[in-house]
Amino acid sequence: MRKRTILMIVFTATVVIIQLFGIPYLGIILTSHSVEFEYIYNWDLIGTDGWYEGYTENFRSSGHYIIDFNGDTADVIARITWTWEENYYHTSDGAIDNYLFTYSLINGSYISGDDQDYNATGLNVWFHIPNGVTESSYQILDTYYDVLGDGVIWVGHLMPFIGKQLHSEGTYYRDDIYGQFDAVFNTNNYFTPKGYLIGEIYTEHDEGYDQETGLWSVFDLNSILFVTSSSYLRPFCFGYYFLAYWFPLLFFLVLFYVVYEKLRWRPRVIARGALEKDIIIRRTSPRNTDISSISSVYLDMIPTYINRARSQGKQIIYAHNQKEILGIGFIEPKAKTGTFYGKFINELVKFANVKFVFTEMSHLPNFRIIETFDVFQVENLQQQDFNFDTDHIRATTEPYLKPIMRMIANEDSGKKSEKYAKWVINSFRDDIAVAAIANRQEDWINQIISELFRRNYPKPEIVGNEVLLGVGFATPGLGTGWLYGLYVHPAFRNHGIGRSLVQARLSTLKEMGCNTVITEIAEWNSPAKNIYDDFRAKKIGKMNLFGKKMPKVKVRRY
């Protein structure tokens, strides 16, 4: 369980960290100008064959544009920081360029000045399509683009934005300082519906002759430009974001859990030699209910425990020899605690990998005894009469469910939170639950409540005008019942409430046809043991709680 948790934490942390690197690309600029944006532009030339093989050039730049609209024109202040380097001559360069220019808000053409180093026709401003993307095609600088509709660009390769995709592809003849080449290009520009730039992805493949040497050469050009922050809205694509980050995580979590669970609970075989059948340990609800070979004082209750576990979502594991069940264990839903009966307890505990173990064994390897309980049995219920205070002891109802959970959680963990006593929900549904309740106006209740602060007692749960004094649970079986989970609020102890709760549960089990009852009482709890003296209970065994370390809260079995 620990390894699985660590792997899941690492996996989740990795996904979160990757997203943290992408968060800066979601930046919104607060500005007094009409438009303001920042971008990053990366350009790489990679020689792949001939004279250019192994040759590379890298261009890196970042820009900051401030735009103010003025009637039908826009005034621009641009600052571009760039570096360039190549590997053959080991040369590099860099500078900060500043631009001041004006362009038309009608057709996007430059009016005075520019930020380009060549003459261009058509829509000259590469970062803005005035009036938004409304046409089916555009000419931007020296390239014609078809509008393909909505497309997704991964800004910084990490965060998906959706924009109007302008696509262009084709060939041209390059004749410049690189040589004479036949170039094949493919470019995609992405704009917001209002015509502001989100990013550009450009690829080019060149084959031809180097101008200086006249030798055959091949190289590729790859560039990407993306706006890192802007004053305008760049639509974020939550669908792709979820599919890229969280869906794979959820998928692998589920897949890992399924695979882990399958491997985790695969049947295990204990070889017994030629004269005896192998012992098989498996996790499933046993089809063969022959438990006669299990040696336990709880033998009569085990069939009931099996049905109860099925209803409450507990795991059932057992050891068998293909003929009969020899040992069985019931694992609580969080897989931290298990209760085991019969033989092969060591093997069952290893198979379950629980932290706390209830068992009748006196020793368990690699575990220490946390607490020991004496197991008592009350017989001949049908021949006994059980008289209890029916004015204060009654079967519990739904309004008392959460108050009982809070009372038990405070008793076991010191925290009045229902989540620490969720097992009570199943007990309400499947078992007998009896509560001790008194009217708030009774004198003895008022007197005790008035002394709560002085005696440093926790405040009792109050429902309407009634005070919850205590509660107890019982599981009816076929002829045998089990008492468990007796709680009395500290302020109301030594008033016979615990005794009445025992009598009420015994009376109910008697009415349901039980003639025998078993229960566990901690060795140190003499007052609780004295209650059962009245019912001629006899000690029939011990139940030990083992743990690899001392628990932080009270460990109980249900």
Report on the structure:
The protein is α+β, with helices and mostly antiparallel strands and 558 residues long. It folds into three domains: 2-241, no CATH class; 266-366; 381-546, Gcn5-related N-acetyltransferase (GNAT) (Aminopeptidase), CATH 3.40.630. The chain has nine helices and 26 strands. Strands 13, 14, 15, 16, 17, 18, 19, 20, 21, 22, 23, 24, 25 and 26 form a 14-stranded mixed beta sheet that branches. α1 (2-22) packs antiparallel against α2. The chain starts with a helix and ends in an 11-residue tail after the last strand. The model has no long low-confidence stretch (mean pLDDT 91).
Helical fraction equals: 10-25%
Distance linking N and C termini? 22 Å
- The total of helices stands at 9
Instruction: Count the beta strands.
Output: 26
- Give a short account of the largest sheet: 14 strands, mixed
Low-confidence stretches: none
Strand content: 35-45%
Question: How many domains comprise the coordinates?
Answer: 3
Chain-averaged pLDDT? 91
- Using only CA atoms, what is the Rg? 39 Å
Indicate the overall shape: elongated
* Helical/strand content category: alpha+beta
